[in-house]
Task: inverse folding
């Protein structure tokens, strides 16, 4: 849940509030940052691969 909220450009403070209000879970900003930092590299790789795929499709159809 933390990563999906972060991917939606939700702030760490808003993620803390959401977890507390919906799940009753208290999570520190440090913990949230550790989670998001752990997956950040994978997210960046996914974005790059997606852009490469899109570029290839555009070139195939319009290039």
Result:
């Amino acid at each position: 849940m933390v990563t999906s909220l972060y991917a939606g450009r939700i702030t760490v403070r808003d993620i803390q509030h959401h977890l507390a209000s919906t799940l009753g879970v208290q999570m520190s900003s440090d913990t949230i940052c550790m989670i998001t930092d752990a997956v950040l590299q994978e997210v960046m790789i996914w974005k790059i691969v997606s852009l490469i795929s899109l570029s290839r499709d555009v070139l195939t159809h319009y290039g």
Notes: The two ends are 40 Å apart (CA to CA).
